[in-house]
Amino acid sequence: MATSLAEIRAKLQAQDTHTTSNTSTGDNGIYAHWNIAEGTTARVRFLPDANTKNTFFWVERLMIKLPFAGIKGQSDSKPVIVQVPCVEMYGDACPILAEVRPWFKDKTDTTMNDLGRKYWKKKSYLFQGLVRDNPMSDEKTPENPIRRFVISPQIFNLVKNALMDTELENLPTDYQGGLDFNIKKTSKGGYSDYSTSTWARKESALTSEEIKAIDTYGLYNLADFLPKRPGETEIGIIKEMFEASVNGEAYDGDRWAQYFKPVGLNNNNSQSASSAPKPAPKSSVVEDVIASVVADIEADDAPFETVKAPVQAKPSNARAEDILAMIRNRQKQ
Fold this sequence. Notes:
Elements: H1 5-20, E1 41-46, E2 59-68, E3 80-85, H2 95-100, H3 110-118, E4 122-133, E5 146-151, H4 153-163, E6 181-184, E7 186-188, E8 191-193, E9 198-199, H5 208-217, H6 232-246, H7 253-256, H8 284-294, E10 299-300, H9 317-332
Antiparallel strand pairs: 1-4, 1-6, 2-3, 2-4, 4-5, 4-10, 6-9, 7-8
């Protein structure tokens, strides 16, 4: 973890330079700040990552949504979405983004631009900390008061910008001289808005009870709550699912459920009992919880800024076939 604001600021500056060149959850370890009432404020205190190698007190989470027309073998199935990890999260080259980036070359081609945004990575951030003032009176506080926060880019930018303020002297996570963060929920254009969220103006020390809780339960290693890093086999499945999604096909549980599945889909929904999927890793429960709540707070990280246009009709089968042909030709090279 970082030992000073200077270290955090230096790394944030380096990243900036490089860049320029009503949902509920069964895991109440995650604080669902998006469920607070409009006009209210949740006051939280972020805490350091248990991973001492992490400069920051958060980890970045990159996911890609793959929409499918339904589930294969189910005549009454509704469209489903499968979230897969974008391997740029681990410093690897993402095969989906490699295919999607060229779709943005012609900014006047709204069909390709819209399709590109559909398959572009979705960014969110995982933090941990204490909820010091909770406006959700009906929420049950877990025994371990150290909560996890799934933070949208809108809120994250407010966190980041304050860290770059030279008048800030201490790390906000400092137990004695840190700062609380006020998550304020308003609305704008019919959508939830958190742009008025702010850091507290005055420093405050953690209480003896809060410090005791940290000593008792310990801090989380935030990277433990990221999806498992895909191996060669999983990368192959991701490519296969991507092509099927672009082609407008249904989700095939027999082929993919043992690797990636829609949130809440039981493995028994696959057609063939003979192709029994492997047991899901222990972390999949937490991943499903995060996937089920992040849709309301994540934001597109498109490769260029655009004004969101009205929803377009989905591309014709002919256009999808052209895109798939382009993908396959590229793979042969």
